[in-house]
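User: Can you fold this complex?
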Amino acid sequence: MELPLLHLALVGTPNSGKTSLFNALTGSRQKVANYPGVTVERKEGFFVTPQGRQVSVVDLPGTYSLRGRSPDEEITRDFVLGKATGETVPDLVLCVADSTNLRLTIRLLLELKRTGRPMVLVLNMFDIASRRGISVDVARLAKELGVPVVTSIAVRKGGTADLLALTDEISAKLAAELQQENNWRALSVAELRATQREADRIIGDCVSLPARPDTWTARIDAVVLHPVGGLVVLALILFVMFQAVFAWAQPLMDLLNNGFDALGEFVHATLPTGLVQSFLQNGVISGVGSVIVFLPQIIIIFLFILLLEDFGYMARAAFLMDRIMGGAGLHGRAFIPLLSSFACAIPGIMATRVIDNKRDRLTTILIAPLMTCSARIPVYTLIISAFIPAKDVWGFINLQGLVMFGLYATGIASALAVSFLIKFFMLRDFAPAPFMLELPDYKMPQLKSIAIGVYTRAKMFLHRAGTTIFSMMVLIWFLASFPQPPAGATEPAIDFSLAAIIGKALEPLLAPVGFNWQIAVALIPGMAAREVAVAALGTVYAIEGGKEAAEQIGSVLATKWSLATALSMLAWYIFAPQCASTLAVIRRETGSWGWMAATFGYMLVLAYAASLLTYNVAVAMGAG
Amino acid sequence: MTDTHDTRRELPLGLARRGYTGIIQHLSAKDAGSALSDIELESRLIELGFVEGARVEVLHEGLVGRDPIAVRVDNITIAVRRREAMAIIVA
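Assistant: Here's the predicted assembly.
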């Protein structure tokens, strides 16, 4: 008879090596999704025990207690208590401990025991503990704690053999006998303290700690956490990361771009001219393709983030930046998400999951789209090269480069200003989160873990490109293609389309900022991905070719637009609210249409105001 | 001086400078001025291992206002702002 699926849950403090144990157990057999109604990542994986039992294991968010002070920790608590909606009560809870640092986990385990769930303590990273001279009396520890204890080395092949064997052993007798009464309730401060004392007593009895701490961590920290030197190191790391994202990804992005172009050409050449051809080439291939070309950048960003996180550097970056960003009302942990947003706001917003405080996380999500993402670069480049002379100012600074820098700087400054205003006006009632963070010992990043992490993120990104973004592109293609021009029309087909009708309807609204209806039309496909606006302008101005003909579009624009219009367009794109995929991610990560609308609204207002100001100042100065 | 030679003056960890080592005497969340409620702050500090008798050492300080600080608590390192560290009385 087939036994039912055995449900395991992994619980542990942050940095306990829970995720590497999860990866070791399940390999790539993982499903990443969100818990219903919240934005907490739900990671489930599957494996088979040596005796052939099918097992599902859920990697619960790291926590120091069951009090549930953040959405992540509430999930962990509800899951263990069997209160999480739509979740199976775990048959067995694996409490994962970093063997070099047992204090906090043993206290957590004593609290977990009150829930009455069958439980095992997994002493992970046991090899590192042994190397540092920490010895654990495993049998005595099991006796004192009253739960089975196994050691594991998640990062080594076969390092989880004991755990697998124990799982089989326990699953054989998993029945009512193991299930006990749930006596858990939130601990008072006194109980918490008493529990920690009890934990310390047990550790004192069962574990012998050597006097020497991890010398490598101390040595690295002496440089990396130095008040000045640490910031220099951080700047260097960021520099390499930017180089990687912008320079290293380029060949791959070109390759993908050419691939999609070739595919489009192939479709164009193969199919008869008509709606199907246009739909496949312009709607599906170029639309979805224009988003998928960002895959290399997303992979590189996540590769860096996961490597630095696995190594233990992320907490240090937050430590260094905490006060510097605190002035603008941002939490130290917001640093990395905002950094990622320079590539694309989507991974940036996804990375805000590391911020446990709701208010800080929301602020970071709201301002992330103000960081100049790589999709704005084609638009900036086009307009700057068409309108800004390539001359030197003050003898040595290139004016075009200066304008580009100014656009980036304005983006950053506005993000900080908006964050400050949000802190001041909107989210005043939320208590500011204190900055309390464990700085884990450095660890050699594990390639397998990193690979699995990058792979699952890339899969999520592609999945989205295949669903949300795809449907957006279909809609935009439809707007730009229907109704069809009457037979014998000489104007470009887009002049007759719904997009043109909408563009012309929007024109009176956009006239004060110096935009004509062609720009209004181009802003619509720019919804799918900002840089599509460049191609759209090309189409609207009836130029053959897309991005390759950027030079040509530039010269046409130079004759059709005034300098004031061009500057206004640049100002618009600093804020540029229209990126459907970013909005979709905000909606998903905040779990709210309201916050999505708020982001769109405030960015629209900023864009309009900035363009209005720029245009009128420019006209007043004679650039109209 | 009426103190015996091995009794050190108590001070909040939030005022300690880099290199300071001491033993936690008690927690006093009341006067820390943290945005958290007293109970919440005290609970979180205990959860991170700041309990009476634990040995602490201030390892690193931030650039702006020497804040936050990285504190060795027994055998782990915790980063905490000075404001919250004011609740930890050491000697």
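The CA atoms of residues 30 and 45 of chain A lie 4 Å apart. The mean pLDDT of chain A is 82.
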